[in-house]
Design brief:
The protein is an alpha+beta fold. It has helices at about 5, 60-80, 140-150; strands spanning about 10, 15-20, 25-30, 35, 45, 50-55, 85-90, 95-100, 105, 115, 120-125, 130-135, 165. The chain is built from 3 helices and 13 strands.
Length: about 180
Amino acid sequence: MSRIGRAPIQVPGKVKIDIRDGNSVIVEGPKGKLSQSFHPDMQIEIDEGTLMVKRPSDSREHRSLHGLTRALLNNMVVGVSDGFSRKLLIEGVGYRAEMKGNTLVLNVGYSHPVEFDPPIDVQYGVEDRGKAILVSGIDKQVVGELAAQIRKQRPPEPYKGKGIRYETEIVRRKAGKTGKV
């Protein structure tokens, strides 16, 4: 049984939800507007500030879609009311980030700076004198994907720990070569 799918979603008062035919849902809140279409077998119902997802049968496909649909709807509601953010830390001599207008510019040891233009509804921020990057927006999937693309420019290496890592990521360090005695 899907424990995630059975959990109700509490909808804040400032969030409006519109369910259209074909299971397309539009969620609108103070931070923005998100829309997505879901599998037609899932039944999405709203009742007095609570959003519920129901499945037609206990087949394997319906059970997996049940939890997925509920999780995606919850991410939409949280995104338009509170938003999502990912923090990345930069470690290394000379490695830094800066903002030029809305564009994020990374200097991470290449012969050229790497630039990232933000898509709609996503903002970049630089903190801690260029050693921390904050990616924030209303769509959890887009925020996570952009954070992964930024990290991919210079992933942390295990010997000195240099590179770009998530705030909660732990880099396992390795011992270097042993020198002559």
